[in-house]
Write a structure and sequence with these properties.
With 720 residues, this protein is an alpha/beta fold. It contains 18 helices and 27 strands. The protein is globular, with a radius of gyration of 26 Å. The structure holds beta-D-glucopyranose.
């Protein structure tokens, strides 16, 4: 009885949160297709109900009792059995858990996920997020960042997947698949060319169609075709004169027509700029709706859209129906109507185990002079651990991708958050007999003195990055280069651990014996790192971005628009004037830039060392596949990420090479494997602007195979 009373008392609350009332309509027949089901509900909907579905009801708690605490809510239609859409940021884990006393797993940043080059890890990554979204009663993810690293100083690179469109697209597609397997709607963002944060709400990206389709848009194309996300989020910036969220080229011509995307487009938060123009261009849902209650003008898809449909006929009813159909068919396809999330306690252990596995595969060994690593736990006598809060924590990325740290309240926007995972403790656990001492690195001389008196020195350096701002430079902040030089000068066995959002410069690289890139390594980054340092795990990660020697070597030595932001710390940047972001480098993104410009990077795309070595042999190339053999020539088991690049016929006028395939090949010591990798003709094609389509040119195609973009011992030519 008491139980029944409790259920009755709860009923109004659930109804208010949009929990569907026992729906009876024919659209609940699961044997029908999502499109058929969507049409059946649509036929029942009133105009007001349709309008309700195409905009949010306010972000971050503005939706009151209906909000689940996430970034947005789209009110459902209980009488038709349509649930509220509860949207949560979830780029590297589910955001805003602290507010409601919940917990979410912090995964390694997605640039680290990309460094695994392992599609299974990408799937597992999405699976953790999908599961934890559901546990926390969200049914829509705002993750899936896939803007390519055109600008290595972009503050959000940590939540994207690197500089290569094929790698980024394929990885994010698996991420989406893993996520959506939990009956949660997945999203890819920020569509498109939001490749820098500087002036993101004001900058106008200039880029030609061919370069656009072969670079940034190719990553999205692969993500959309292979990942089948329910949603695509359009970005804040303009592209070739039109805001991305009212850009008919991006939203309709390319996304919906050329790629056949059946889902819906939502705006980034406050990224809608018009009613009719945006609706006609292809935007389907405005978020977060009444963004700013004082500025009702920011709501374009509420009463204003109703007026545009009914009074002025600027937006035909057929277009409104299409918007609603897209949302409904996505709800049915994702399973959120048939299998709504039920609240559950997040399993922190399961999440952490996956986070650790991804972290272990994400870390990239950059330098290992004299086989400095792995350390021998049985013999090492003393270790100096220096810098970057290594005694207490490891860094995470800021902004809407920020996950709240265990034991902390809501995270401050954009300020570095250190997760309470101490690499020093993990090192002590591995080598309990060694004397392990910490110095915070504030005084390089004191740090050097400790290093000098220790057998091994491990210096931790950091590069905090966040949504909302970019790095002015790839130089590490806070004079950390000086610290590393001082320590490297004092101890010949110095290993640098980099906790960065992406690339960093390393003027001290010749003064240290080891370097390892760990990105922002997630909730078990400490253990993963210790496993690599002591050889329990053989590193396999390879760089998904090029590391430049200096800012001067980048396509844009200074970020466009950065000159308008005062160099002094603090955020008082005032109102920026509109400006163009001219991607004149076009096709030459990342390694393609370094190759075409004949510049040597500090560390090349695809590069990463292991504790064993591999030999490549026997390349046979056809236009549609390559076969080659990799042998583990060392004494440890490992996994080599073998990469295949193609050089197109001269008439294509392309950068020297592009990634077309790869495979992660586990190998026991002495073992050889011969692999055959299919080559997708799309990845050998160029985009022909006149024909508005992809074209595979006749001629000689060169294939380069090896362990990085700059180490390709095998070459062969195939004709087409
Ligand atoms: C970000 C999006 C995010 C949204 C909601 C925006 O500022 O660009 O990535 O999903 O806010 O928090």
């Amino acid at each position: 009885m008491a139980l029944l009373a409790g259920v009755i008392a709860l009923a109004p609350v659930l109804a208010q949160r949009g929990a569907p009332q026992a729906p009876k309509g024919p659209w609940m027949d699961k044997s029908l297709s999502p499109d058929q089901r969507a049409d059946l509900v649509l036929a029942e909907m009133t105009l007001d109900e349709k309008i309700t579905l195409v905009h949010g009801a306010g972000g971050f708690g503005q939706a009151g009792a209906r909000s689940n605490g996430g970034a947005g809510v789209v009110e459902g239609i209980p009488r038709l059995g349509l649930p509220d859409l509860q949207l949560a940021d979830s780029a590297v884990g589910v955001r805003s858990a602290a507010d409601r006393g919940r917990y979410s797993t912090l995964l390694p940043s997605t640039i680290g996920e990309a460094a695994t080059w392992n599609l299974k890890m990408a799937w597992a990554y999405g699976d953790v997020i999908g599961r934890e979204l559901r546990d926390q009663q969200y049914n829509v993810s705002l993750g899936g960042g896939v803007d390519i690293t055109r600008e290595p100083r972009n503050g959000r690179n940590f939540e994207y997947q690197g500089e290569d469109p094929v790698l980024a697209g394929k990885m994010v597609a698996q991420f989406i698949q893993g996520l959506q397997s939990n009956h949660v709607i997945g999203d890819v963002k920020h569509y498109a060319f939001n490749d820098q944060e500087t002036g993101r709400n004001i900058g106008n990206v200039l880029i030609g169609k061919r370069a656009a389709r072969e670079t940034d848009l190719l990553a999205f194309e692969i993500a959309v075709r292979e990942g089948q996300p329910g949603m695509v989020m359009c970005s804040y910036n303009k592209m070739n004169g039109d805001w991305a969220c009212e850009n008919s080229y991006l939203l309709t011509d390319v996304l919906k027509k050329a790629w056949g995307f059946p889902g819906f487009v939502i705006s980034d938060w406050g990224g809608t700029h018009s009613t009719a123009k945006a609706a006609l261009a292809g935007l389907d849902n405005e978020e977060p709706g009444n963004y700013n209650l004082q500025r009702q003008d920011m709501s374009f898809f509420g009463p204003a859209l109703k007026k545009a449909v009914v009074d002025s006929n600027e937006v035909p009813m057929s277009r409104l129906n299409d918007m609603v159909h897209r949302i409904l068919r996505t709800e049915f396809a994702a399973g959120i109507v048939d299998d709504p999330p039920k609240g559950r306690v997040v399993d922190p252990f399961r999440g952490a185990d996956t986070a650790q596995e991804i972290a272990e595969q994400s870390m990239v060994l950059l330098k290992n002079a004299g086989n400095q690593l792995p350390l021998n736990a049985a013999t090492v006598k003393s270790i100096a651990v220096i810098g970057s809060h290594a005694d207490t924590g490891m860094l995470s990325g800021g902004g809407s991708a920020q996950v709240d740290a265990p034991g902390s309240g809501p995270s401050p926007w954009g300020r570095p958050v250190w997760f309470p995972t101490s690499p020093m403790k993990a090192i002590v656990a591995k080598a309990p007999k060694a004397k392990v001492e910490y110095n915070d690195g504030a005084d390089p001389a004191a740090a050097a003195a400790l290093a000098k008196s220790s057998e091994i020195a491990i210096v931790f350096v950091n590069q905090p990055t966040s949504e909302g701002s970019d790095l002015r430079t790839l130089t590490l902040p806070d004079d950390q280069d000086k610290l590393v030089s001082a320590v490297g000068g004092a101890n010949p066995h110095t290993i640098v651990v980099l906790e960065t959002g992406g690339a960093a410069t390393m003027p001290w690289i010749d003064q240290v014996s080891g370097a390892i890139e760990v990105w922002y390594p997630g909730i078990r980054g400490d253990v993963a790192l210790a496993n690599i340092l002591f050889g329990d795990v053989n590193p396999t990660g390879k760089l998904p971005v090029s590391f430049a020697k200096s800012d001067a070597d980048l396509p844009h030595p200074e970020i466009p628009g950065m000159a308008q932001i005062p160099a002094a710390p603090g955020r008082g940047r005032g109102r920026m004037q509109p400006f163009d972001v001219d991607y004149s480098e076009g096709l030459k993104v990342g390694y393609k830039w370094f190759d075409a410009e004949k510049k040597d990077p500090l560390f090349a795309f695809g590069y990463g060392l292991s504790y064993t070595t591999y030999a490549y042999s026997g390349l046979k190339a056809r236009i549609d596949s390559v076969t080659f053999t990799v042998r583990n020539t060392g004494k440890r088991a490992g996994a080599e990420i073998a990469q295949v690049y193609a050089g197109l016929p001269a008439a294509a006028n392309e950068p020297p090479k592009r990634l077309v395939a790869w495979e992660r090949i586990p190998l026991a010591p002495g073992e050889s494997k011969t692999v055959t990798l299919a080559i997708d003709p799309k990845f050998l094609s160029i985009f022909n602007e006149e024909k508005d389509g992809w074209e595979l040119l006749p001629g000689d195609y060169q294939f380069f195979v090896g362990g990085s973009s700059r180490s390709t011992p095998l070459t062969a030519t195939a004709k087409r």
